[in-house]
Recover the amino acids of this structure.
């Protein structure tokens, strides 16, 4: 495969999106597509794992979520759900 070709990654649509293997520049479309697939399956609460690190990925995730009309609300996870290394998203029905 040519290095310039985009590689397709199959992700399970189960309400948990783990972004550990992705760079911030790669996640914008991924988040939009993943949340759209969750809504199609009536999964209206999604956990996005972005890790704690430097906070760059978390900021990117929150910026994307803040612009999506299908997002009802989002917040950092409780400590037993990943704390500030994960974001919980509530989606609007539809």
């Amino acid at each position: 495969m040519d290095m310039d070709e985009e590689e397709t990654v199959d992700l399970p649509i189960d309400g948990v999106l783990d972004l550990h293997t992705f760079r911030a520049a790669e996640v914008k479309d991924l988040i939009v597509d993943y949340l759209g697939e969750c809504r199609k399956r009536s999964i209206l609460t999604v956990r996005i794992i972005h890790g704690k690190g430097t906070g760059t990925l978390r900021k990117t995730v929150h910026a994307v979520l803040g612009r999506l009309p299908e997002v009802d609300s989002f917040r950092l996870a409780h400590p037993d759900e990943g704390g500030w290394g994960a974001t919980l998203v509530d989606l609007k029905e539809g």
Notes: Residues 1-5 have pLDDT under 50 and may be disordered. Helices lie at 27-40, 56-67. Residues 51 and 90 are 19 Å apart (CA to CA).
